[in-house]
Write a structure and sequence with these properties.
By secondary structure, the protein is mostly helical. It is built from 9 helices and no strands. It has helices spanning 16-45, 48-56, 60-83, 87-115, 117-145, 152-173, 178-198, 200-203, 209-233. The longest helix has 30 residues, at 16-45. The termini are far apart. It is a multi-pass membrane protein.
């Protein structure tokens, strides 16, 4: 009986030219994801109902519920993108992921854009530039040197579990995690970008540029979140 699911052609089996084509598709989808994120964020911030609801969910156990819902939704979207070869379903999963990223950013971006005035706009611009510069630099380092950063997986896993534990403790007991936690999370996000980038040729097939873009987009947004928090803490 003919196999209905042909063996996936992995990126590491491609020629250098074809790999470059895969990278271009992947990073163009990351860029498109950022643009869609901006559009979603703009639309969400126009809704007083959404803004008020999200602001009401930023304290104590409510924030934990929100983070839990966010993690469930984004993990579902990420799994959906990886499990299917249907391009439309992959785009749907990517769109779902971007929407929930935009939703979780609503409280912080509302504070920056609406409550901090012109100073907040400058701060947002600076944080965006720093985030994109770091993301580009880290990705370029991996792609140009071809260094294998897969050894970071264990450290990243442990680091993220510790971070989740600290976030839960901070939310339940009401203490601020502070500047150094944000710095540590930026290091984790940077490590995640290195790992995701070096893993492109090992994990994904030639047609998996959408799931690959989703993973990189997730790390980019995590980096942006904590860089923005660092900039906000200066004031």
């Amino acid at each position: 009986m003919e196999n209905q699911f042909p063996e996936k052609i992995m990126v590491n089996s491609l020629s250098e030219v074809d790999r470059v084509a895969f990278y271009k598709k992947t990073y163009s989808h990351v860029a498109a994801g950022v643009l869609v994120f901006v559009l979603f964020e703009y639309l969400l911030l126009q809704s007083e109902t959404v803004v008020e609801f999200m602001l009401s969910m930023t304290q104590g156990y409510k924030w934990l519920l929100m983070l839990g819902g966010f993690m469930l939704a984004t993990n579902y979207a990420e799994g959906m993108a990886m499990r299917t070869t249907d391009r439309n379903k992959q785009y749907l999963a990517y769109g779902i992921y971007i929407f929930f990223e935009a939703l979780i950013f609503v409280p912080m971006l509302y504070i920056v854009t609406e409550l901090m005035g012109p100073e907040g706009s400058d701060l947002l611009y600076q944080a965006s530039i720093v985030t994109l510069a770091l993301f580009t630099g880290l990705s370029a380092t991996v792609l140009m040197t071809k260094t294998d950063f897969s050894f970071l997986k264990t450290g990243l896993t442990i680091g993220f579990f510790i971070a989740i534990g600290l976030i839960i403790a901070g939310s339940l007991f009401g203490f601020d995690l502070g500047l150094w936690f944000s710095v540590g999370m930026c290091l984790l996000a940077g490590g995640s970008i290195l790992y995701q980038t070096s893993n492109l040729v090992k994990t994904y097939g030639v047609e998996d540029y959408i799931p690959a873009a989703l993973g990189l987009f997730a790390s980019l947004m995590l980096l942006f979140w904590y860089i923005l928090r660092i900039f906000m803490s200066r004031d």
